[in-house]
Amino acid sequence: MRLLLPHIKNAAKAAEPSSSTVLNALTQKVKLLQEENDELYQILRVKETGKLKEEVRSLRKVVHKLEGSLRGTSLAPTQEVMHDRKPVESHQVIDSLS
């Protein structure tokens, strides 16, 4: 859309007065389509972000279960929340075994 607008403006400068109405309509349509495109892009971006957040939640659950398996017990829910703020204990276990 942004590529078309300069061409339409250049054509409007060279056009006869009778065709300026058509060019104005085209310019308005290009602007409207660009706005719609921007809105759709924003919706798509939000949707993709939501999918990624859900995937992160799923992966955190897997990590939680794996850490519990390494210790032989499961973590309390509060420990899972704190997981983001402290070093991952499973890494410490693996490092100590190495």
Key terms:
98 residues; 4 helices; rod-shaped
Structure, described:
It is found in: Nucleus. Its main location: nucleus. This protein is mainly alpha-helical and 98 residues long. Helix content is 80%, strand content 0%. It is built from four helices and no strands. The longest helix has 52 residues, at 20-71. The mean pLDDT is 77.
- Helix tally equals 4
List low-confidence stretches.
none
Can you count the beta strands? 0
Morphology: rod-shaped
- How far from one another are the termini? 57 Å
Please state the CA-atom Rg, rounded to the nearest Å.
28 Å
Largest sheet: none
> How many structural domains in the coordinates?
1
H-E order: HHHH
Instruction: Indicate the percent of residues in helices.
Output: over 70%
Class based on secondary structure composition and strand pairing:
mainly alpha
Average of per-residue pLDDT values: 77
Q: Roughly what fraction of the amino acids lie in strands?
A: under 5%
Topology:
Layout: H1 4-14, H2 20-71, H3 77-82, H4 89-97
InterPro entries: WTAP
Subcellular location: Nucleus
Keywords: mRNA processing, mRNA splicing, Nucleus
Offer a quick outline of the entry.
The protein is an all-alpha fold. It has helices at residues 4-14, 20-71, 77-82, 89-97. Helix 1 (4-14) packs antiparallel against helix 2.
